[in-house]
Design goal:
Blueprint: E1 5-10, E2 16-17, E3 31-35, H1 37-43, H2 46-50, E4 80-82, H3 84-89, E5 94-99, H4 109-122, E6 127-131, H5 135-147, E7 150-156, H6 161-169, E8 173-177, H7 181-190, H8 192-195, E9 198-199, H9 208-212, H10 214-222, E10 230-234, H11 239-254, E11 264-270, H12 275-281, H13 308-317, E12 321-325, H14 330-341, H15 347-362, E13 370-375, H16 404-414
Parallel strand pairs: 5-13, 6-7, 6-9, 7-8, 10-11, 10-13, 11-12
Antiparallel strand pairs: 1-2, 1-3, 4-5
């Protein structure tokens, strides 16, 4: 274990657990990894961090994997991109996208699964299983292969086909299930004894969240240790949002951030699967399952989140909000962002742009506020959702003279 980890802590009741043993849940709820932050502060400075390789592992004092035992595919710092044209479309002066699509497996899942498989190998685990809505399956397959660990991946039968092929091509045993991700999770849970696999489900082990929190550490560093006013984050299992909020508080304890300059966290879901948004509206701490969940953004189709209260706690503590958007508009918002800024925006992020539009209209976000939207994956992995032309693309016949007037007319009609 990393030199600064002290213990694991139950998120539901604060019970302390031993960090050098394999742990999963306590009372059916997730665990936090806790650090000796005083010792971290004595050993680490902003200047130390700035001199290190541009990798999520640059924050190693705040990570659990033992140094030198990282299972890595080269997880670089994802770019933080200014988006002035897209911002202008929403009446914002200072809009940014943090682009996780450039990580090794094309999504933010690289962070969590790199950390989870590092710890699995550390503890001598030989076989893992995961339920997935898509990108987590590919990332599990990739990092399990890198670690030399056997992987089983269970996904709904309508999971984007690229995710299916990705996990299979990376050596995992892949199974399609005629149900939702919670049904896949039941298979993993019930198979633990018979198959002797370790359950890598979201928040059912404590280390994926530590990988995901590096999004928050990076964001703080990229903004010179001054956080934005608002962060919009697409929420399925919610590990990234929870992890970032944890990261910000660890940086506060180190004295690297200002307590009066914390961002408002926005949890974004689709109206077709909105357990967190509904619990927020109803002023509840725990979320009831969303029946008959459906959305074109596969990563948002998580009808039951074991960390529901952790998501809602973070949103409320930050003065933020949990919101859902019209699922039918997600492809249009996705295309809007991609065309405006040249960023390969996934449909989950498209949902965030719908939320941004709504919150700007209500005045909840002001024109001069600094706003960050997380792009959690690459659009190319969602062929089923990409809006293709309703008619055939214009065709140029090289057996005839090239008609540039025709080309100009088409370009005008498309713009």
């Amino acid at each position: 274990m990393a030199g600064f980890v002290t213990h694991l802590e139950s998120a539901i009741d604060g019970t302390h657990l031993e960090a050098e043993q394999i742990q999963t849940l306590h009372e059916g709820r997730p665990l936090w990894v806790r650090y000796d932050l005083e010792a971290v502060g004595a050993a680490l400075t902003k200047e130390n961090v700035a001199r290190r390789t541009n990798s999520m592992w640059r924050y190693r004092e705040l990570l659990p994997a033992p140094w030198g035992e990282e299972v890595t595919l080269g997880e670089g710092m994802s770019p933080l991109l200014a988006c002035p044209r897209l911002g202008a479309q929403f009446g914002l002066e200072n809009l940014w996208i943090k682009d996780e699509s450039q990580l090794p497996t094309g999504s933010f899942k690289s962070r969590g699964l790199s950390m989870a498989l590092s710890m699995a190998r550390h503890f001598g685990i030989q076989r893992v299983a995961i339920p997935t809505a898509g990108n987590a399956g590919g990332a599990t397959a990739a990092y399990a292969a890198r670690a030399g660990i056997e992987a089983f991946v269970f996904m709904p039968e309508d999971t984007p086909v690229i995710n299916q092929y990705e996990a299979r091509s990376l050596g995992a045993h892949v199974y399609l299930v005629n149900g939702l991700i919670n049904d896949c999770a039941r298979i993993v849970r019930e198979g633990k004894s018979a198959m002797d696999w370790f359950d890598l489900s979201t928040l059912k082990e404590p280390y994926r969240i530590e990988g995901k929190k590096t999004m928050g550490l990076e964001l703080a560093e990229q903004f010179q240790w001054e956080l934005p006013d608002v962060i919009l984050y697409p929420t399925g299992g919610g590990t990234g949002l929870i992890g970032m909020w944890k990261a910000f508080h660890e940086l506060l304890a180190l004295g690297w951030l200002r307590s009066d300059k914390m961002p408002r966290m926005v949890s974004v879901q689709s109206a077709g699967c909105e357990p967190i948004a509904r619990a927020y509206r109803n002023e509840e701490r725990f979320a009831d399952p969303h029946e008959n969940a459906h959305t074109c953004a596969s990563g948002l189709r998580v009808p039951v989140a074991v960390g529901d209260f952790m998501i809602l706690d973070a949103v409320r503590q930050s003065g933020g909000i949990a919101i859902s958007v019209d699922d039918g508009q997600i492809p249009a918002w996705t295309n809007q962002a991609s065309a405006a800024e040249g960023i390969s925006v996934c449909p989950e992020t498209g949902a965030c742009l719908g939320a941004l539009k709504s919150l700007r209209k209500k005045g909840w976000i002001q024109p001069n506020e600094r706003v960050v939207v997380f792009n959690t994956g690459a659009l190319q992995k969602y062929l089923e959702v990409m809006q293709l032309p309703t008619t055939k693309l214009p065709f140029i016949d090289l057996n005839q003279e090239i008609d540039f007037d025709f080309i100009e007319q088409v370009s005008v009609s498309e713009s």
